[in-house]
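Why predict the complex rather than its parts? Because the way molecules touch one another can change local conformation, and only a joint prediction can capture that. The input here totals 1228 residues.
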Amino acid sequence: MEIKPNETKLISAFFVFFLMPGMQIGVGVLGFERIIAKEAGQDAWISIIISGVTINILVWMCYKMLGRGTQTLDLVAIHHDLFGKWAGNAFNSLFIIYFISITIIIVRTYLEVIQVWMFPGVNILMLLSIILILVYSFVVGGFRVITGLCLIGLIITSPLILLNYFPLKHAHFENLGPVLDHSFLEIMKACKKMTLNYLGFELLLVYYPFIKKREHSQKWAHFGVLFTMAVYLNSFIVSIAYYHQDQLKDVIWATLTLWKIADLPFIERFEYIGVSLWLFMVLPNICLGIWAASRTAKRAFGVRQRKLLVMILLVILFACIFLDNRIKIDLFNTISSHIGFYIIYVYLPLLFLWQMIVYKLRGHKS
Amino acid sequence: MKFFKGKRETDVAAFQEAPKDFHDLQRKLKASHDFHTFQFPDEEGYTISYFNSLVNDQKLQEHILAVIKNQPMRSLQRLKGDIPMEASKVTSDIVIIQRMVMAGSVMIQTKKADGSCLLIPCVHSVKRQTSIPESEYTVAGPKEAFVESLDTNLNLIRNRLPTPELQAREFRVGSISQTKLVVLYLDGIVNQQMVETVMQRIADIDYDTIVDISFVGQMITDNRNSMFPQLIDTERPDHLATVLSEGKIGIMLDGSPHALVGPNTIISFFSSFEDYLQIWNLGTSFRLIRLFAVLFSIFSSSLYVAVITYHYQVIPTDLLPILISSRGVIPFPPILEAIVLEGTIELLREAAVRLPAKVGSTIGIVGGIVIGTAAVEAGFVSNVLLMLVALAALASFTVPIYQISNTIRLIRFPFLLAAQLYGLFGLVICSAFILSHLLKLTSLGSPYLEPLYPMRFHDFKDSLIRLPFSKQKKRPQFLRTEDGIRIRKKDEARRSQKDIDE
Amino acid sequence: MNVKLLLISSCFILLSACGVEKQILEDILIAEIVGYDDVGEDKIKGTVVVSVPQPGEEANLGKEVYEAISHDINATRQQENAKTPFPIVGGRLTVILYGDELARRGLNDYVDTYRRDPMVGRDLYLAIVDGKAEDVVRMEPKMVRTPGVQVKELIEQNMRTNLTDVDLHKYLYASHGKGIDPVMPLLEKAEDQIVVKGIALFKRDTYIGKYIPYEEGFLFKILSENFKLGSYEIKWKENDYTNINNVESRVRYHITDANRNPKARIEVNMKANLLEVQGYDLNKPIDVNKIEARAEHILGKKMNEMVNMFQTYNIDPLALGDHAKSKTRNFNREHWEAVYPHIPIEVDLNIEMIQTGISE
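Output of the joint prediction:
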């Protein structure tokens, strides 16, 4: 049942550090500030930390689950192990659909950013095809290539952090006060909204067999999530200091709008460069999502991954064309973020408990 | 697939099939007018035959004919002992006879027609003196370059690495040319698996005439369609010797004044050998300047097109008037302007390479001054772009390895098109495509983007930066060497810990 | 591999046919400065200056002025386009001017489009013109190449000494945020020059018709932000004046009991040097302490007057409401807004003379 990838296709444990933010930080970071600030105002940074911590707990659970059996090295194996082939595959299909749908959100949202910020009249079909061909050329390279993309994407986009220097000149850090002025409920609501931005760590369940010295990778996974948290925290604090809270409520893409004031002697208006370069942050998301979907499908149903890849790309193409206005996108977004929320906060812990119980029982039997 | 391969092999055999017998061979050889056959010393003596064009006349007369004349007739075996020439052979194997005669041996037969003959190598080969390296010229450092003779080249290497571990495996490549090829490596350092890969690939070479090492290079690289070279072509024996001791593999071909070196990472194509001849901090700075120059060279004209076509917003206020007024009178869209200008530069380069050196410099003047000024004055191109393109061309000349500079020349054009399509976003898409290609690329099986990915911190010591020799304690990890340690002596304990005035 | 290459190349060819809307630099007119005036009947008049390339080797830009009258800003843009050979684009606008009559009607409707348009930067300046914005827009630039740049540099230059930081972002920050009111530079056309007249005061997005005169701008700047330049002239004896030069000033707001009986204290610490002292006795070194005390007294009084004036008009350009909110739990905004005009606000100014120039 267990499929061990070829030795040459493995990645070192260290790269899990890059895979975590590679899937978590994407197009959301450009505009998440407004959404959480609506719920918890200046206290939303607490929500970022709380949800970051819970995600770390979930990562710990994933590692526990993966390390428990001798051959349950990935999600499909766990499902088959616990529920048998048919029921297991039903859950696998759920995950496949979920992976595809978060990928669709990412692609569609990034296309919207391009449409709004750079080319209002762009032919979506053409742009989409180009991006999907690009994704294809990465994904056929296999997991190693995608990991490389995560790493290099992070390296290329990390200078954009320096752009935060410019808003700091106009910053009002007193906007962060008074601390804890919002009720627990409000902060929790913001936590729920924040979850969508942390989605992607659960891909660990799929790529775990690809890690060399798997046991050593756990700390890197936790560091990766903490890194993601630091990035979100940084963006949020800079935004709340730069914008007035009442103003932030109308700014859809707070981080992007913030780049507008970057002003160097040889180039102005950094958002154009930022939006373009952000492709390197979004591509790992898309590639990992599609790779995970196709890999899970391959493991579950034993179809060639190359074929599945083409099929999934076509599904994404049609879905993105279908989602052609704000209302549909928002609806789809809400639905999939709900699915995501329940999958990671309800399904994963339940799966964890169920596996624990089953293994206890089995242990007693033998 | 296998079916076809099998068929092709039989075809090859058909061509190479040895003449049926000795007469057949003689008939074939005699068809050439430079094949001489005569009886010596008299009608009853030996039959001596050779290619006049391959044999050294002086040697023939002094060492062979003189000996034969002064002695009575003997058997070939005895005669072989009398003539003081190495590697002579008595044989009746037609294949060997043919090969040796074609390689410049003198064939001596007796009247007894038993088919056996004595073959004495007596080659007359035209050799060039070693000269100054041209494409990899450095100001400091040795001024020797490889020549066309394999023996000379091996001599240059052996002189630099006087160790029995330096092993040279010989191959013959090319079904017609039968060119001698040598794989060089340092046993005990090099990764044996890599050597086997190389040898396997060389054994698989199937082509009729191989005249230069670049043929071999194209046939044994990992991705044969990639614009990015995966093997370095060097003409410096010192360069080859250095990388051999790092654990790389060198390949040399008779008749080619270059050696192939592999495996390489993309960074090694931008590091000049001169970086090692300077103090490390200077070497590092120049290496970084070179990398920056390459990036500039690739992106400058396409950035111009992207910004002028789509993103006027990013131009700083003070630059705006300059750009607007320089573009104002140009009748073409920016993309056409850029392609015309880049095309012109490529034309000039190509012309300058093809023409003899003396005329070549005239081309530079004509191109640079006359065409450039005229084009700007006629309002065909803007002076800003002219400046950018000229700078980009200049920047691309800083690349030390000739092959990758061609890649950089060409890779600009997809970027130009992408910039025309989607502006800055197009540039990023195009870069992503290239990244996807580079991530998949390997050089003799080791990843091309190392040490960036897979990340090996140790290898950063000699990649983008070059740290001093004392820090280079280990050989590069991507070579997976059998012996990874370079400096065995322990650090002289805390030399730098001395206090002031001690 | 080959199929992929073919696919990619064919895509490129297809795409070059149906690409994106281009904005080639010379085929657009880049608006530099735009002015809006009220022309009655709910209509506005937009006047825009675009730079036009002049043929020739020199980097000369001519200018061209277009105007249009309509109800909203986008419609005026549209009408202006009807008169131009190329589309006018606003991506590099440097200054937007509003006539004072329009500003009195409220600016939200006329700023909104610049807030939404992703093409527009955030480093452009908004200013009010005492009179017609059109007059300033139509001014022939001196020294500097184009009128847009001229007004921009005029504002930027003065922002270091007498104007507070006033770009589009600051305006949006203040007009959208509660507990804070925006200010804008007030320009005026005097003869053939553009002059900064002072700082125009707003309630929300509406110009209240009052302004802080240019010289007092320094005091307002001291009250509202930390900065390091500027100077102010005080009278220290009969007919004798001294000019104190700000080296570094820091301001802190202390607001207590914001939900019931708010009290505000504005603490200003200023390090200054003397650049000009009139009528001192050559034989005695000048008494720095005396000047300090005098300056504190005079400036403090002026500042107190200024703050009281803000309260009288119920405006809050110093963002006291915002500061109160960030210091108070469960901040009661209605209460604050109700009591704001009457709360005691004390300005506590400390001046420290750290230098007297290169002469004692």
